[in-house]
Every structure is written in C-alpha cells, then in structure tokens.
Amino acid sequence: ATHKLLLLPGDGIGVEVMAEVKRVIDWLDRRGVASFAIEEDLVGGAAYDSCGQPISEEAMAKAFAADAILLGAVGGTKWANVPYEDRPEAGLLRLRKDLQLFANLRPAVCYPALADASSLKRELVEGLDVLIVRELTGGVYFGEPKTITDLSDGQKRAVDTQVYESYEIERIARVAFELARTRRNKVVSTEKHNVMKTGLLWKQVVSEVHGSAYEDVHLEHQLADSCGMQLVRAPKQFDVIVTDNLFGDILSDVAAMLTGSLGMLPSASLGGVEELSGRRRALYEPVHGAAPDIAGKGLANPIAMIGSLAMALRYSFGELEAADRIEAAIAGVLAGGVRTADIYSEGKTRVGTSGMGDAILAE
Ligand code: NAI
Ligand code: MG
C-alpha cells in the first residue's frame, strides 16, 4: 500500500530535522521497502507569517486526508508578541484537538551506548524500554469550571476541575492493552484512587476493559506517586504505563531524563478509528521544541524526528520491518560512536544534523 504522509516541518530546528527524515523516506521508497505519497505544508510561526494563522484551513484538510502526520516543532522568539490565539503552539493544539488525538505515546528507550548520559546509574537504565501512554484530551487541563475569582476579603480563589468520563478511560485503556501485546505484555495503570474520584473510576474502568478482552495481558495498578518513585528506583520493571493527562505529563518527563537527551525522544498521538477507512488518526513528532538557541546552525540531533517516522511505520502503516530497520540503524550508529553535540562525549565522532542523517542512511 502507498502511505499518505503529511509533513509539517514547522519552525526552527523542525525544518532541519525534517530534512533528514525526508532522506530516510526517499531511501525507503527507492529501495521498495515502503511506498509513500508525500504532502507538505506549514505550521506554527511559519504558517502565521504566510497566512496569518498558525495552521491554514488547507493544511487542516490535508491533515484529515493523511494516513499519518509527521510534525517537526513549532515556536520561536520571533512570534513572542503575536496574538495569543495565533501563537505557533496553537497550530499544534488545533491539530491535536480537531483530530481528537486522545492517546499520547511516549517511549523512553535507553540505548546502551548512551546509558552514561542518563540521570541514573548505567545498570539501572541500560536496555530500558518503557512506553508511557498518556490520556491527552481530558482531565484537569480541560475540565470545567476553570476559573480565578476574587473573594470579598481581597483573597483570590483558583479552580481547576478534573473530569473523566468512562468512555475516555475505556478507549485509552484499549490502546494500552493493544500496545502491550506487541511488546512485553505488561501494563501498569496509575492514578490516585485513594484520594480522587476520577482515580477510582479510572481503576475500575481499566479493570473492566482488562477483564472484557485483555486477560492475557498482565495488569497492575499503582498509585501515581509510587509509580514516580518506582520509575527512578527500578525503571526496567515497566513495559507500558497508562495514565491520565496530568500524571502522564509529569511521568513522561521523568522517564525522558532516564534516557539521556531531549534530541533522542520521539512521540505519537493517536486518535479514534474512522468508520469508513478503518484507519486511526495519528500525529508523530519529536518531544523537543524548535530550539531557537541552535536553529539554523546544522547542529540539531535528528534522531527524535527519525524515530518518529519509525513510530509512524510501526503504528500507522504496519511496516514493522522498516520500523525495526530504522531503529536498528539508530542503535548501530550510536554504538559506532557517532554523536551530535547534544549527546557528544570525549573520544566520540562529532557530527552535525546532516552528518547524523548520512550515518543513519549508511547504517
Ligand atoms: P526545546 O526543546 O526547543 O529546547 C530545549 C533545549 O534542548 C535547548 O537547549 C535546545 O537546543 C536543546 N534541544 C532540543 N532539541 C534538540 C535536538 N534535536 N538536538 C539538540 N539539542 C536539542 O525547548 P524550549 O527551549 O523550551 O522551547 C523553544 C521553543 O520551542 C519555544 O517557542 C517553545 O514554545 C517551543 N516548543 C515547541 C514544542 C513542540 O513543537 N512540540 C515543544 C516544546 C517547546
Ligand atoms: Mg510536559
């Protein structure tokens, strides 16, 4: 099958790392490993400069038509003073919202060659491969009421509201169990059922989904604070962690620091399955931002971006062999001592963005 892929490079180093992904896509296409129909458009500050909106209606239409979207990064100091609703991040938020991308997948993989860059001791992280599945469209970031009010005595009161409906928990639980089956078959579900009603419902619904169709997957419930502790005590015990928007935000950043550099981390955001085509909406992007401090210098590490393509091949296109080959090439290049500046250490071979692309293609 030909995979319809929309490329949204965005701003700053997004453009530079996307250029390396395009070379990988060309390589796969030319060798007949996988076949692509590529569209490209603007997002973020680049789109604002071109059409006065952080994503155009035309780009949104392309996003709905695509089998998957690859996004670089958005943002930069140049757009510090544009109206709030037109800021670069708003383009990304609109994509997530309109495509209903409710499941955020953040793998934290520690390559043995980079284990010394982790915040933890080598033996704790070497070979680490955790997948955090974070609920992305509900919970306390979106719940109403969400207010700050003045009280009569000059004090103020701020309110955020955590709301989850059972269907939101059910669909993210299914994603977690399905993914666990393609990995080591283990899910840890994490919440605070001891002090939160949403936690109580979360635990109950995850257990029900487990009992209904996924009893072959090992399921464990952990309180979120305890899960955070375990993640820095013995992270290799985890396979898939499924959690809500707030806890997932925090736990995925903790897990990120176990692996070394921000420039190494891909992510996926998955939405619902469309009835007609049977395809799942999906957006793949590096965890890092537009990095204005190094933009335009050819220094950015393209591995997070190239790893995001591997995730698209795995989760949207079912091209497992191509995904494996990309991930093996990344591991091989790192084992061979090739390093961009962000992961450089003494005695290794320092390269720029395109040099890393060259090395991965060669491998
Ligand atoms: P950032 O991720 O852009 O940069 C943080 C630090 O990590 C910088 O020192 C940067 O040079 C370094 N870094 C990041 N990616 C790298 C890579 N691939 N290779 C080598 N070094 C890398 O986060 P920051 O500085 O907080 O934000 C910069 C801009 O990016 C802001 O406008 C922010 O709003 C935006 N941003 C966008 C995101 C997105 O598009 N998803 C996510 C995070 C920030
Ligand atoms: Mg965060």
From TrEMBL:
Catalytic activity: (2R,3S)-3-isopropylmalate + NAD(+) = 4-methyl-2-oxopentanoate + CO2 + NADH
Organism of derivation: Ancylobacter polymorphus
Keywords: Amino-acid biosynthesis, Branched-chain amino acid biosynthesis, Cytoplasm, Leucine biosynthesis, Magnesium, Manganese, Metal-binding, NAD, Oxidoreductase
Subcellular location: Cytoplasm
UniProt gene name: leuB
Binding site for NAD(+): 76-89
EC number: 1.1.1.85
Record's cofactor remark: Binds 1 Mg(2+) or Mn(2+) ion per subunit.
Domain Isopropylmalate dehydrogenase-like: 4-360
Top-level taxon: Bacteria
SMART domains in UniProt: Iso_dh
Protein family according to the UniProt entry: Belongs to the isocitrate and isopropylmalate dehydrogenases family. LeuB type 1 subfamily.
Record site: Important for catalysis: 141, 192
Function description: Catalyzes the oxidation of 3-carboxy-2-hydroxy-4-methylpentanoate (3-isopropylmalate) to 3-carboxy-4-methyl-2-oxopentanoate. The product decarboxylates to 4-methyl-2 oxopentanoate.
Name of protein: 3-isopropylmalate dehydrogenase
